[in-house]
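Pilot study result, target chain (421 residues):
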Amino acid sequence: MGFSIEAVRGQFPALSLTDKGRRRIYLDNPAGTQVPQAVADAVSRCLLTTNANLGGYFETTIAAQSVVDEAHQAMADFLGAASLEEIIIGANMTTLTYHMSRTLGRALKPGDEIILTRMDHEGNVSPWLQLAEDLGLVVRWLPFDEKSWQVEEATLTGLLSDKTRLVALNYASNLTGSINRVKSLTAIAKRAGALVYVDAVQFAPHGLIDVQELGCDFLICSAYKFFGPHMGILWGRREIIDGLKPYKCRCSSNGLPERFELGTPQIELMAGLAAAVDYFAGLGAAAGEGGSRRQKIARAFEVSIAYENPLAQRLIDGLSDIPGLTIHGITDRKRLAERVPTVSFTVDGIVPETIVRQMNAENIFLWSGHNYAWEIVHQLGIPAEQGVVRIGIAHYNTAAEIDETLESVHRVVAMLRQQRS
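Predicted structure:
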């Protein structure tokens, strides 16, 4: 048993919507995916039947606590965490990272060093930069290699010192799609005594995460990038977070993970989060896995990767046929496993937004701009005010959609060139 694209697409109501009779092609997935019906149903059911705050003794508050506990356990299974107490759920990745950066900052002092990459989304850069400015920390920049499109171990090694306190890495780039070798990079940083904070937002929809195997101290992702509601999830290693003193209300709980989760939780969204994880488990079950939820999730990624990668290669091959078009990322089919199916490009003499506007008018949804990959565009010398055209595949897209998108890119580029001549 494997992957049925028809069965998958049948679970996503948005995929059947039309505008004035015109189909939609969703290739804006790196910015946020569509959701299965089960996720929407879970949110609605929670609001209608378990709508109460936590901490009481009546039926709805007890049921609401069960929703919260299940969301934490679901994400522990999704990430391979040792316990649901290691799972911190909040508004979004950026907000959680700002919060955790300030908490970690309590133990830092002027002259301490942190390492940031030129490959990260700004949500894993600005919180640390501003912390460094506040505390007098030294920031060391870790570039990515423009041949491999990855952060190289030797480059990280050269930046580490006995003053390095934290290394912030990304698992996969939201612009180039490149996957970093997080396990080996983490091992190098840990040998130097540094904490490791990993942004896995772009990797989480496309590959199985095992925080125990990676060896990092923190890992963060966003549910709305893997078919869930708008929430951020931060995993923290128990022995690390147990000793941290977060900024919080004096009278709020000191338990884990509650002391890191400020204010009233978004309980209805947590219901949707658990449903999103169960969607992956359902994919694994449909592919023949009968074990635990974690095992089903692992199987789901096996079959979805096997489906996504040929689509990504089809897209890369088709774009590579256009003269003057540059793909910013891995294009070697032998290295397809080293990237997620997010493909960004520029075309000589054409502003990316002009391409995207034309394609959006054809109901092909994609983005232009820097997409918060601020350091990447600067390292590559791409004008930040223009950025790139970004196409992002999810496992509900089809080969026919990729072919139609390629036909549109070819036609739009030719038309824009003719207008310039």
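One observation from the pilot: DSSP finds 14 helices and 15 strands in the chain. A full batch analysis is planned for the follow-on phase.
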